[in-house]
Design goal:
binds D-glutamic acid; alpha/beta; single chain; four-stranded parallel beta sheet
């Protein structure tokens, strides 16, 4: 039997988009506990100023801390590209942005006709560099949140953004966009999607030092202590007679 160590992972986004990241994380790490926060009252984030983004997301980070999570995943491209370092400074909980694993992935690939679609603030941040076709798509998120992913209106909006572009590989630079993959495929049937949630889930390394480990032995000696020190980074060890 394999022992399973559980972690509590906090995941958040402006709304429904982060659920695509959560889904990928759960698929890869089903043994963990998850807490999700979607800021559906304040969505969309994609056109908000840095100050507004920081104000809203700071509160969510504090909320997740109060839920005693071990790590936090910012499942939002807009926040990751604009306020990651500020959020990192705000908390002692290890915090991961959604963009870095995808940027690293792209650096190691030679992909032709590569484009990224994302919110205005993500595109404006220049986080994906200049060697990529960059398209800001402010109309997609409000339609998804309004339950109109499968509507004619959505199809028209997507056509407006994508139809006349020569794209073979498309980075879904906003975590909402995996929810309209099928609709994009109707316009570009052979397109290859680069999904940030899937790449993050593939790459997320949970550091052993983040586990809380309390060890008890009814008789403790130096052999046990040195063995434990070789095996674990962070722990408390105690002799306890029952
Ligand atoms: N899902 C978010 C992102 O990845 C934010 C979209 C929005 O609220 O505009 O950028």
């Amino acid at each position: 039997m394999n022992a399973v160590i559980k972690m509590r992972i906090g995941v958040f986004d402006s709304g429904l988009g982060g659920l695509t990241v959560l889904e990928a994380l759960i698929k890869k790490n089903p043994q963990n506990e998850y807490v999700y926060f979607g800021d559906t009252l304040n969505i969309p984030y994609g056109d908000k100023s840095k100050e507004e983004l920081l104000k809203l997301s700071s509160k969510i980070v504090k909320f997740l801390e109060s839920k005693k999570v071990d790590i936090i995943v910012i499942a939002c491209g807009t926040l990751s590209s604009n306020v990651y370092s500020e959020l990192d400074d705000l908390t002692t909980t290890p915090i991961y942005d959604i963009l870095s694993p995808t940027r690293e992935f792209l650096e190691n690939q030679k992909l032709n006709n590569l484009a990224v679609i994302a919110t205005e603030m993500t595109i404006k941040s220049g986080v994906f560099g200049s060697d990529i076709i960059s398209i800001a798509c402010p109309k997609i998120v409000p339609l998804i949140e309004a339950g109109k992913s499968d509507s004619e209106e959505m199809q028209k909006v997507l056509e407006g953004y994508l139809k006349d572009k020569n794209i073979d590989n498309l980075v879904l630079g906003c975590t909402h966009y995996p929810l309209v993959k099928e609709q994009i495929k109707k316009i570009k049937p052979n397109i290859n999607f680069i999904d940030m949630g899937e790449i993050l889930a593939e790459n997320l390394k949970i550091e052993p030092s983040k586990y809380q480990l309390d060890l008890y032995f009814s008789s403790l000696n130096e052999t046990i202590k040195s063995l434990v020190a070789n095996m674990f980074k962070d722990y408390k060890i105690e002799e306890r007679r029952l």
